[in-house]
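One such given next:
>
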Amino acid sequence: MAKTIDFSVIAPPEYLEMFVAQEPARVHHVAVQRILSDSTYRAFFRREAERGAEIIVDNGVFDLGHALPAADLVAAARMVGAREIILPDVMRDGAATIKASDEAAREIRDMSDEFRLCAVLHAADDEEWLRCYDHFVSSDYVGAIALPASRHPAPEEQLCRTRWTATRYLEDRGMVEERIVYRLLGLGRTGHLELVEQCEHEWIASVDGAAPVVLGALGIAMLLDGPYEKPKTPRIEHLGPIPEERFDLIRRNIAVVRSAAGSSVRIPEARS
C-alpha cells in the first residue's frame, strides 16, 4: 500500500503564510541561516511547531555552500522548537560527509540529546555510496537519513546519481532500517513525478522543494501527469516579489506536488 510523503514547501520568507502554512501542520524543512537572521521567519515556524509540525533544521550547505557550526544548528533548532537537525554534508563526497557528520554529531551530543540527527548520503560512485550508507545505518547517533535529489541526467542504474534507483535498491535488498526515518531532499530532475514512484515505499517520510513556488512565480504550471520540464530558474532567494496574479497558480502547483506525494495537507489560506 502506498504511503503519504509529507511535502514541505520552500518559499521566500514574505510568503510563508500564503504558501508554506499547513493544515494539518505536518513537516517543515527550515533554513538555519533564516532562523538566525529573520525574526518573522523564526516566529512562523515556532508557531507551526506549536501546532504540531515536525521542524527539521537544515545545515545551510545547499544555500550557503558550507554548513553552519554545531552550536548555531543547536541554537537555531531551539529557537523554532525543532525535533531534528540535518548534519553537515559535502556534495558528492562520501568520506568528507562522514567526517563532517561524525564531528558535528559529537559536538551536538555534547551540548544536547534532544534532537534527532539526520545524515545525508553523498558519494562519488556507487561503492562509496554503499560505504556511506553502511556507516550511517550502523552509527548510534543517526536517527534519520536523507537522500539528495537527482539533479542532472545520469545512468539510471547508478545509486549515487539516481534516487529512485537507490530507494528501490534499499528496499529490494532488505536494507531499510526500521529505527531510521528516511527523507528526500529536494525535487530532482523529474520533479513531482518521482514522488508517484517513491510513494510505493512506505518508509519515506518527507520531501521538500521550492519548484512549485519558483515555477508558479514564472507563470509555469506543473501538471499532475507531466511532463515535467523545468527551465533554468533563479534560486528561491533571488526570486524577488511575486505578482499577486500568480498566487493561485503557485497554490495549484503545490497541490499537484502533494497529490503526487499522496498527501491531503492543504494551505489554510487556500481553503474556502
In short: The beta strands are 6-9, 27-31, 54-58, 84-86, 116-120, 142-148, 181-185, 204-209. The two ends are 31 Å apart (CA to CA).
